[in-house]
C-alpha cells in the first residue's frame, strides 16, 4: 500500500507505470485498465495534493501539483497508504 518516494511522480505522468521494469514483466501482468490516465487528467485541471507512505519507510511523501505541473515533492509524516486531495477543480479551464 502506498507509493514509494522515488516513484511518486510517476502517479502524475500519463501512461506511466511502476509495474513494468523489463520486457518479461509484460507477460506477468494480471490487471487491465487505464489507471495511468485518471490522476494526470485530474491534476491537469486542479491543485492536487498526494500524501503517501509505504510500510517500513522512514517517512512518507507529499506531492503538490498545480495544473499538471509538479510544484513540490517533500518528505511528510502520514500513515501507510495514499490520500489524494483535489482543490480548485477547473481553475484553469474557461467557463
Automatic annotation (TrEMBL):
Signal peptide interval: none
A GO cellular-component term linked to this record: mismatch repair complex
GO biological process: mismatch repair
Classification via Gene3D superfamilies: Histidine kinase-like ATPase, C-terminal domain
GO molecular function, a single term: ATP-dependent DNA damage sensor activity
Entry-linked InterPro entries: DNA_mismatch_repair_CS, HATPase_C_sf, MutL/Mlh/Pms-like
Family to which the UniProt record says this protein belongs: Belongs to the DNA mismatch repair MutL/HexB family.
Protein name: DNA mismatch repair protein
Organism, as annotated: Streptococcus mitis
Lineage: Bacteria, Bacillati, Bacillota, Bacilli, Lactobacillales
